[in-house]
Amino acid sequence: MVFTRGGVDESIHGVHLAVVDADGKLIASCGDPDLVTFPRSSSKPVQALPLALAAPELPSDELAIACASHAGTPEHLTAVMRLLERSGSTVADLRCGTHPPFDAVVAAELIRTGERPTPLHHNCSGKHAGMLLSCVLNGWPKEGYTEHGHPLQVRIRELHAELGGVSLEAVEAGTDGCSVPAFALPLGAAARIFAGLARPSGEYAEALERIFGAMTEHPFLVAGPGRLDTTLMPLVPGLVAKMGAEAFYGMGLRETPRGPLGIAFKIMDGGERARAHVALAVLEALGIPLTPEMQALAPATLHNWAGREVGGVRVELPLVWA
Amino acid sequence: MVFTRGGVDESIHGVHLAVVDADGKLIASCGDPDLVTFPRSSSKPVQALPLALAAPELPSDELAIACASHAGTPEHLTAVMRLLERSGSTVADLRCGTHPPFDAVVAAELIRTGERPTPLHHNCSGKHAGMLLSCVLNGWPKEGYTEHGHPLQVRIRELHAELGGVSLEAVEAGTDGCSVPAFALPLGAAARIFAGLARPSGEYAEALERIFGAMTEHPFLVAGPGRLDTTLMPLVPGLVAKMGAEAFYGMGLRETPRGPLGIAFKIMDGGERARAHVALAVLEALGIPLTPEMQALAPATLHNWAGREVGGVRVELPLVWA
Predict the structure, then answer these.
(1) CATH 3.30.70, applies to A2-171+181-321
(2) Which InterPro entries does the record associate with it (chains A, B) (predicted)?
(3) Per-residue confidence at B291, pLDDT binned at 50, 70, 90?
(4) Inter-residue contact B267 to B15 (CB < 8 Å)
């Protein structure tokens, strides 16, 4: 996809994309659907699965925050604190590190008051709180819960393979921005994970259904003000969507002309600004009509600081049908 | 160039690059040296040339701020104000628009004090102040100085063609983030502009020499704390360098084994994080030894929020020698 200025193509983002049906069969692609890459935070529904399995009564807002890359608003922090307390943990147990909250208003408020951000503000703090509760409920030590060899992380790697329909050897490991393992797998396998959220089946069906419900019922908790997951999910019936760093995106669609589908894509260069444009283009290509509210999430024109129109966005998504 | 995580390539940035010698002859390239693209703020030395020609006695710090994409520190604002006063102008005459200062410390200070950013904080305010003085000294109206048809902008377009060694028709026009025309030209032509700064000749030689002197004597004014132009220029004898938005970079090198050279490159996707890595790789390929201080500007390893090493950067710059 291309960002233009005047009549000239200024910057170009390459896209790799895979679409699978409810049986996990590849039905369409763009670029290389076998590209092995990191879903990053798009893995959070998988990382929350051991929690969903161990805590069938967990309130859905707490399950949602465990799947979130949140913006650090008070509403997000409250949900994280509640989840944290369930395992008898405190902020001091979180191993995610600290960054200023994603939400600009909250970030400015911290600067104004002279308050420092804490690990609670880290966009992954809900995931970490969920992991701590997972450990307690499964009888694993909380100590070292972020390490590659910890039973929770070993289990999460297995779940990536199981839900992605690939061998354990096909799941490569790195370390994420929040210090837990990040797993890389082929795009088609990541799409299968999201198809599994759209139409849960097998031994994890009930837990996956609760994760789908939690994320779609609490889109604000999953991300935050103005962020794509939060704004897009309520506009598309039966859509579960989760952003990952470096411009990864996963979507599970319950209702399409082709039945439930799973979609995963990666902007080659990690260019986050391309994500919303590509997400809408693939939804449209899959038969989801784009409403004006949806189109407003990916404006086709670019304006400068003085409000003048200076360019546009041209989406080229040459889907190849399998 | 590739950003890796664990052992996996995570994100990839494509590069187009041109290197020309002092005669403007292409001597090396990567990707497409004929790519027509916008230098954006890398055009500022050309945009300041009418000012340098009309104001031979202008202090070098004011000429430097006219060439700057500055960070909005008090030192930058003072220089802009002085330049603005020379044309009897005020902040109200600036047509650049307003954005929060690039410098995080200054931006936070504004938030703390509740002060709003003004057009002075816009990274291009020095260029605009210079343009206003250009108008007064050349007898052109200040009114409408940002418009494509204004005599100043017409002249700047001609200068792009002249210094780039291309026809006027080869210079395409868009509008920049600060509302003045942005001109697009082939990468090789942009490299010629920087070769002309490294070894000025012809009718503009004296003014180009003063621009070179101003930028290299005041690297802080040209950008700001931690920004590449500011940090790199003092480390490489005879280097003039200027960043442009969407990951453009122009460098003029006075002293290399091949004599004075001009370099221009564009990260295809506009990925700013790749710029320093590519700049160092091309300097090394052109025979400039990389010191530890230079290498520190483009770290080969990536760390996460908790300070853990999570990945690296692999620079692939397959230079083709002409």
Answers:
(1) no
(2) Asparaginase_II
(3) very high
(4) yes
For residues B182 and B40, the answer to whether their CB atoms sit within 8 Å is yes
Write the residue in A8, A111, A270 that is nearest to B184 by C-beta. Answer: A8
- B305/chain A closest Cα distance in angstroms: 5
Q: What parts of chain A have a pLDDT lower than 70?
A: none
Distance of alpha carbon B245 from alpha carbon A122, whole angstroms: 29
**pLDDT, tens digit, 9 for 90 and up, residues B121-141:** 999 999 999 999 999 999 999
pLDDT for B305: 85
Q: Among partner residues B10, B98, B308, which is closest to A179 by beta-carbon distance?
A: B308
**Hey, what amino acid is at B153?**
Q
**Contact between chains at B305 and A108 (C-beta distance less than 8 A):** no
What tens digit of pLDDT does each residue of B73-82 get?
A: 999 999 999 9
Instruction: Write out chain A residues lying below 8 Å of B115, CB-based.
Output: none
CB B299 within 8 A of CB B313: yes
The two tokens of residue B122 are 């816009």
Q: What is the pLDDT of residue A305?
A: 85
Chain A residue with Cα closest to B122: A305
pLDDT at B306 over 90: no
Contact (CB<8Å) B308/A271:
no
CB contacts of B178 in chain A (<8 Å) are 304-306
Residue B296: how many CB atoms within 10 A of its CB?
11
Residues 6 or more apart whose Cβ sits within 8 Å of residue A78: none
Residue range B196-217: average pLDDT?
Answer: 98
Q: Which of B6, B182, B304 sits opposite A177 (nearest CB)?
A: B304
Domain ranges of chain B: 2-171+181-321
Mean pLDDT (chain B) is 97
Contacts of B153 in chain A (CB under 8 A): none
Count chain A–chain B contacts defined by CB atoms under 8 A. Answer: 143
Which candidate in A1, A2, A8, A125 is best for mutational testing of the B interface (most B CBs within 10 A)?
A: A8
Q: Residue A202: CB partners within 8 Å, gap ≥ 6?
A: none
Which of B95, B246, B269 has its CB closest to that of A269? B269
Spatial strand order in the sheet of A239-244: A239-244, A248-253, A261-267, A15-21, A26-30, A320-321
* Measured CA angle at A76 (ends A75, A82), to 5 deg: 90
Task: Tell me whether residues A184 and B307 touch, CB distance under 8 A.
Answer: no
pTM of the predicted model, to two decimals? 0.97
Q: Please report, as a single letter, which amino acid is at residue B308.
A: R
Distances (CA, A) of A57 to A32, A75, A118, A133, B170: 40, 21, 29, 13, 67
Interchain pair A8, B247: CB under 8 A:
no
Instruction: Tell me which residue in B37, B108, B175 faces A310 most closely, judged by beta carbons.
Output: B175
- On the question of pLDDT at B277 being above 90, the answer is yes
**B105 CA: distance to closest CA in chain A (Å):** 11
**pLDDT per position as a tens digit, A26-62:** 999 999 999 999 999 999 999 999 999 999 999 999 9
Nearest chain B Cα distance for residue A150, angstroms: 17
Neighbours of B322 (CB within 10 A): 12
